[in-house]
Amino acid sequence: MIIRRALPRPGLPAPSQCLRFPRQQRTLATSPGPESDLARHGKVLPTEPPARSQGHRIRPVTADRPFTLKDEFENFQNFRKQSSHTGSRLSRHYAPYKHASRPPSPSDLTLELLMASGAHLGHATALWNPGNQRYIFGIRNGIHIIGLEHTLSHLRRAARVVDRVVEVFGTVLVVGTRAGQERTVVQTAEMMGGYHLFTRWTAGGITNARQILAGEKVVEINDLGEPNPSGPMEDPIPVRPDLVICLNPLENYVLLKECGQFGIPTIGVIDTDADPTWVTYPIPANDDSLRCISLIAGVLGRAGQAGLRRREAEVAEWKLEGEQEDEEAMMEEEEQVEDEQMEIKNWEDFENYMKKREALQDEQLKEINKIQEDLPSTPTLW
């Protein structure tokens, strides 16, 4: 007969019957009890003291003070307290913006993480675009399933593009106009030092930028937010991005078309109902899941952050080299000034020497004339 209720279940408090079970087993057993040991040996063997690391000292069992139910309960409570911190801990909430604020690097991205974010879920089979056939893994419950191996490879390729563009001082524009994407778009742009847009795109912002930006105020390049004191530019020069990351291509077809006309590369999240030819570097994934979008945008932002760090290190090296060159130039100028001053000093010394020499010659000439005057005049022979 198997008694299942007597065994404690993991994660549940042990019942009181389980605590009494060892006492009943010792009572019903054929082994002699503590009284027979006391009568046989005349004394009770001392129990070994527990280790100090346990933090709880078990009371020794004697004939006068047997092991009671209270002692068993205290030991059980102590054991539960000591083992409460062992094992893994599961959080009871999900942070929707965790992947955008602390995203994994492209090398640490896994298929399990993509599946957990819902990147494999496509649209209904009736809404599919034939251009996405190579990205579709299969059909389940009337919807297309996206192959995550394609998502992973295309996402890593796009991450390399972002990394390189940011490293070579490129301008990156992150666009996401759906509800709930504002925070993700802003965080991604801040990580890579780019620009963001979470409102409606103004048509002609790239193709007709001179007319649209004609009345706009020009902001200083140091990003202080101070308008240009000279006022609006009469003939503004349009600034076009070097790379555009679009998180919802279906709502931003005009932007993607303008980028295509000017040869601006684009990265977009392509679902099964979108056309992959709209963007330069498609990422087949679920564009309706905020968790999936946050993960993809976070990975791209982390790649841009790596490129930004290398760019800052390169700029710091350039500044150091420039400072060294300036110091060398200043030292050369100082040496040149010292040489000029030395030449001037030498010339002044030469002039003083010539003046002293002329004065000495004048004095000698005066002495000679005076001597000649003092000599007696000699008589002439004729």
From TrEMBL:
<feature type="region of interest" description="Disordered">
    <location>
        <begin position="1"/>
        <end position="56"/>
    </location>
</feature>
<dbReference type="GO" id="GO:0003735">
    <property type="term" value="F:structural constituent of ribosome"/>
</dbReference>
<dbReference type="GO" id="GO:0006412">
    <property type="term" value="P:translation"/>
</dbReference>
<dbReference type="InterPro" id="IPR001865">
    <property type="entry name" value="Ribosomal_uS2"/>
</dbReference>
<dbReference type="Pfam" id="PF00318">
    <property type="entry name" value="Ribosomal_S2"/>
</dbReference>
<keyword id="KW-0689">Ribosomal protein</keyword>
<feature type="compositionally biased region" description="Polar residues">
    <location>
        <begin position="80"/>
        <end position="89"/>
    </location>
</feature>
<dbReference type="InterPro" id="IPR005706">
    <property type="entry name" value="Ribosomal_uS2_bac/mit/plastid"/>
</dbReference>
<feature type="region of interest" description="Disordered">
    <location>
        <begin position="80"/>
        <end position="104"/>
    </location>
</feature>
<dbReference type="InterPro" id="IPR018130">
    <property type="entry name" value="Ribosomal_uS2_CS"/>
</dbReference>
<dbReference type="InterPro" id="IPR023591">
    <property type="entry name" value="Ribosomal_uS2_flav_dom_sf"/>
</dbReference>
<keyword id="KW-0687">Ribonucleoprotein</keyword>
<dbReference type="GO" id="GO:0005763">
    <property type="term" value="C:mitochondrial small ribosomal subunit"/>
</dbReference>
<protein>
    <submittedName>
        <fullName>Ribosomal protein S2</fullName>
    </submittedName>
</protein>
<comment type="similarity">
    <text>Belongs to the universal ribosomal protein uS2 family.</text>
</comment>
<feature type="compositionally biased region" description="Basic residues">
    <location>
        <begin position="90"/>
        <end position="101"/>
    </location>
</feature>
<feature type="coiled-coil region">
    <location>
        <begin position="320"/>
        <end position="350"/>
    </location>
</feature>
<keyword id="KW-0175">Coiled coil</keyword>
